[in-house]
Q: What sequence folds into this?
């Protein structure tokens, strides 16, 4: 059994704790990076067998410095207020197929397990729309051990990989000879992860979901962001205060932050805010989608479903349009429907795939009459006294 003699558990006095709290609150991202560098040096010393008892027990207190801004709020490029609709219909907003896992950087393999992410890329489930259901308070004192173990599990670590630990840091050596450092906050919960892989060093900010599942983002300075976390998934983390939303996006190597003023969202209900803003930014990130919405004066709350290549829209008279992107003409073709076919939202990806859609249109089959049955989508028609299946394909 692995000995615990190398792990420092020296208690801190009240003065030391208060000094560390003050230092932590004022520590900038640059100082965290410097601290990570010093911790890597300490880890290298341990690997070489140069254990220094006093060094093991010392708790570094960073020197106060003015914090640097780590994000640049981007101005809105599309008028949110012009895309409101009082006729909100979320009945079809249930698809969860477009959830994408995000690598923490383009050079590292540490990615979060998809089973922990139930969020969609454009169309959030109704049960996750409210602030209270998307984020729940975490009981720190009772669950910090569980948070640490979940973070260890993310990197395939256990106690056998632990080199040393104290109140502020824990050092691990993975089976692939990477040095992994968990830096802890004042509650002794890991809040920053530093990975040394050969000559490369990666630093991540750690956040936890309500079930204590960790999510890693490229390191950013949270002191510069106002408000409380209201939403997060593998790609995004949102903060809200009384006057604005700060939306953070994981770009792989860094975080990109945008600010939306609450004054731009008059009349948008709390339960509609998350899907509304997700669609807004998804559209603005896609030039072709942005052009489609602007040219057709589409209201964001009337978008039933959207993907990279099509958009389903409900008109005020409850008829529908499907805008399908055509690579041949580099534009959208509009298909008008009186009603939607009796299929699930996720099945539209198959129905509207280029090959299948082309066959449907060439044969003038009415899309409204397609049905989903037992893992298949089919179109049947009454011919004489018989009902004949004219088209059937597997999902």
A:
């Amino acid at each position: 059994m692995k000995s615990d003699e190398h792990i420092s558990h020296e208690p801190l006095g009240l003065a030391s704790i208060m000094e560390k709290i003050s230092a932590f609150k004022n520590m900038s991202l640059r100082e965290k990076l410097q601290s990570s560098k010093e911790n890597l040096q300490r880890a290298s010393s341990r690997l070489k067998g140069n254990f220094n008892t006093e060094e093991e027990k010392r708790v570094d207190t960073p020197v106060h410095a003015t914090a640097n801004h780590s994000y640049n709020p981007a101005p809105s490029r599309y008028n949110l207020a012009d895309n409101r609709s009082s006729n909100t219909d979320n009945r079809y907003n249930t698809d969860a197929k477009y959830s994408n896992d995000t690598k923490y950087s383009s050079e590292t393999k540490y990615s979060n397990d998809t089973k922990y992410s139930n969020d969609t890329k454009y169309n959030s489930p109704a049960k996750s729309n409210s602030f209270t259901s998307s984020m729940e308070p975490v009981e720190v004192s009772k669950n910090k051990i569980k948070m640490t173990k979940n973070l260890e599990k993310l990197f395939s670590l256990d106690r056998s990989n632990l080199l040393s630990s104290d109140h502020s840091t824990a050092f691990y050596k993975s089976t692939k000879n990477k040095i992994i450092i968990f830096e802890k906050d004042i509650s002794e919960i890991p809040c920053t992860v530093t990975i040394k892989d050969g000559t490369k060093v990666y630093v991540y900010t750690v956040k936890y979901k309500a079930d204590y599942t960790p999510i890693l983002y490229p390191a950013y300075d949270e002191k510069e962001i106002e408000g409380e976390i209201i939403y997060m998934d593998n790609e995004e983390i949102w903060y809200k205060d009384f006057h604005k939303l700060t939306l953070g996006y994981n770009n792989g190597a860094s975080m990109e932050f945008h600010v939306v003023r609450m004054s731009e969202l008059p009349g948008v209900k709390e339960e509609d805010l998350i899907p509304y803003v997700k669609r807004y930014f998804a559209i603005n990130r896609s030039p072709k989608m942005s052009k489609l919405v602007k040219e057709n004066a589409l209201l964001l709350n009337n978008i039933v479903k959207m993907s990279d290549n099509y958009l389903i829209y409900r008109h005020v008279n409850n008829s529908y349009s499907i805008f399908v992107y055509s690579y041949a003409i580099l534009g959208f073709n509009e298909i008008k429907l009186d009603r939607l076919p009796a299929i699930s939202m996720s099945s539209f990806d198959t129905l509207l795939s280029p090959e299948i859609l082309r066959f449907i249109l060439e044969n003038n089959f009415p899309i409204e009459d397609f049905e989903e049955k037992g893992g298949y989508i089919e179109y049947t028609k009454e011919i004489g006294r018989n009902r004949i299946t004219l088209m059937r394909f597997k999902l």
